[in-house]
Write a structure and sequence with these properties.
The protein is an all-alpha fold and 270 residues long. The chain has 3 domains: 1-84, no CATH class; 95-231; 239-270, no CATH class. It contains 10 helices and no strands. The protein has helices spanning 8-30, 35-45, 48-53, 55-84, 96-123, 129-158, 163-172, 176-200, 204-230, 246-255. The longest helix has 30 residues, at 55-84. It is globular.
Amino acid sequence: FNNWRHSPVCREGLGIAAFMGALGLHVLFSLPANSLFQSLDAALFGGSMTEILSPGVMTNLANVFGWLALPSALAGLYYMNRCYRIRARPFWDHWQVVTSFFGNMLSLGALVSGVVIVSTLALMETAYSSAMMGAGILMLIGVSAESIGLIAHARAMNSATHEGAASHFVQCTTFGKTYDCRNALLGVNLLLMMGLLAFAGDGSLALAGWSFAGLLLLATSIVGRALFYVLVIPTTMPGAFFWKNKGFEQHARDIGLAEMPQVGVIPNAH
């Protein structure tokens, strides 16, 4: 936090810290209005905690911190994006990073929230179709945004002449099957989610369909994040510092870094 004026990393940290703090206070101040908390208070303290804390006042404070958490999270994500949009990493220096980060925020956030909310409503034997459909819409928006960004990124890297183009070439050759599989699963998931929103309605069939869509989302997110980090080639030392990169492996052997087991490079046998 010592360089907020110049460093996107510091600003990202500030945004995430503010989000976590505001979210924690939102949960804390929401407790007095919670029926389970009130039941425990009545059983253990005769309801005195509820009287002291005043659920109405605490709810207002919870709302304030809940609203503060939203811009803090957006600011943290924005500066997270700025951390990667640097000229020394041409593979990352594209607006696709924005669609990836914010798309994942919507899709994965909706998936986690949907699992919690739908499971809770199901246990309470309450209708959950509206919550499931709402989470599904956000998942569809997030995956659509990420897919649009990936298409634009591929076109930009195909026509480029910098290290980003080299990274994309490795992505389409050495990791071509993984890349194609991820893209195909994204397309399948988009069609599945659109079909579920249009035709599935509610019930066990819809729940099974959205569960499968969630599993596909997790798979594509993990593979996509791996490709994002593994394939980037820096301008400062092309062919260095990244996983299974032959240039870095040879560099590590030349300077003795390969002798350290944690580096993950096999040293020369002779």
